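Severity: low
Component: inverse-folding endpoint
Summary: output formatting inconsistent between runs
Steps to reproduce: submit the following structure tokens with default settings.
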């Protein structure tokens, strides 16, 4: 298959990215992600200068992949970043300078957790088809969301969104990842401040973008949100969901000192809780323990047969659609071939 979304610099890069897309497209989720990217003219390229596995720029609608990653790792990364493209097509409000620190941090976490859950879903589907390498590669760095996804999936949570929900919640249990996003947030604030208007500066850190809106809009499985409004409300009102790392806590305090009229004569943590509804995250040592994964249901003859039967049925359905042809056209064609 050819992908108009690939913008490679040379043949070798083009064929590597193509191989990633080909494998990803073998899963239903991956196929849909790629189709959406094609429809919305998202572009994909390697970027040798990046440190992360991948990234998505919503302004350029461009997705970058790290060429130093292995083929198997790139499959999960591509699914994750393509999901970001889908999320932004649904219309997300996210502005490091304008948004309240709590809503920005929660919304950023929600879209990351959702993209991570999606990468699990694509890799898990491939594992069920017999290629478990992308899933294992994803697990190497991210067992905190891969294992909960797998456990829920093994227990039948694949179709009803339970596996997505488990991965989503699992994402929050890794403090290293969360710290790196807190760090990114502070960087984004600084960047926005350097080129904002006076008006924007006056409105800084005041816009409330409720996390529930973002979750209901983008965190979906089979077209339905996998977290209800009530579940989202509950999840994002725990102290843990309002935490930021020690270092970034201080940065936010400094950023919001003036706009929030913080009182320096009172304890910092008390002020941050009262005015910004933010809490300092405990040290890494207090990070929740990793979940042990249930064994993967390896492909058996039966589920391979079931998958094959499904494919045949799909093809038949497509060819049924094609058979509606005007007899006059057929006659004309027959005439031409003679
Ligand atoms: Zn991401």
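Observed output (run 2 of 3):
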């Amino acid at each position: 298959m050819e992908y108009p979304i690939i913008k490679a610099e040379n043949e070798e890069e083009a064929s590597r990215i193509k191989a990633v897309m080909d494998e990803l497209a073998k899963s239903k989720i991956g196929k849909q992600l790629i189709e959406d990217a094609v429809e919305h003219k998202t572009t994909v390229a390697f970027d040798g200068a990046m440190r992360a596995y991948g990234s998505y720029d919503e302004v350029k609608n461009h997705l970058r992949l790290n060429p130093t990653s292995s083929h198997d790792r790139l499959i999960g990364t591509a699914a994750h970043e393509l999901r970001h493209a889908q999320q932004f097509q649904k219309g997300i409000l996210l502005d490091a300078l304008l948004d309240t620190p709590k809503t920005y941090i929660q919304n950023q976490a929600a879209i990351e957790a959702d993209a991570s859950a999606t990468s699990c879903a694509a890799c898990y589907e491939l594992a069920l088809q017999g290629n478990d390498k992308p899933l294992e590669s994803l697990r190497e760095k991210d067992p905190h969301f891969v294992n909960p996804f797998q456990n829920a999936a093994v227990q039948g949570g694949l179709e009803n969104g339970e596996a997505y929900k488990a991965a989503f919640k699992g994402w929050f249990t890794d403090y290293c990842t969360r710290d790196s996003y807190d760090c990114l947030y502070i960087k984004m604030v600084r960047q926005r401040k350097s080129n904002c208007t006076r008006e924007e500066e006056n409105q800084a850190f005041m816009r409330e973008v409720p996390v529930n809106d973002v979750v209901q809009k983008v965190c979906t499985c089979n077209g339905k949100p996998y977290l209800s409004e009530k579940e989202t409300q509950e999840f994002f009102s725990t102290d843990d969901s309002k935490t930021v790392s020690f270092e970034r806590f201080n940065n936010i305090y400094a950023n919001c000192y003036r706009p929030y009229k913080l009182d320096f004569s009172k304890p910092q943590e008390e002020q941050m809780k009262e005015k910004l509804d933010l809490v300092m995250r405990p040290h890494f040592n207090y990070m929740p323990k990793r979940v042990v994964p249930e064994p993967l249901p390896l492909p058996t003859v039966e589920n391979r047969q079931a998958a094959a039967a499904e494919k045949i049925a799909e093809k038949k359905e497509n060819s049924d659609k094609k058979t509606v042809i005007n007899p006059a056209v057929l006659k004309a064609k027959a005439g031409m071939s003679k």
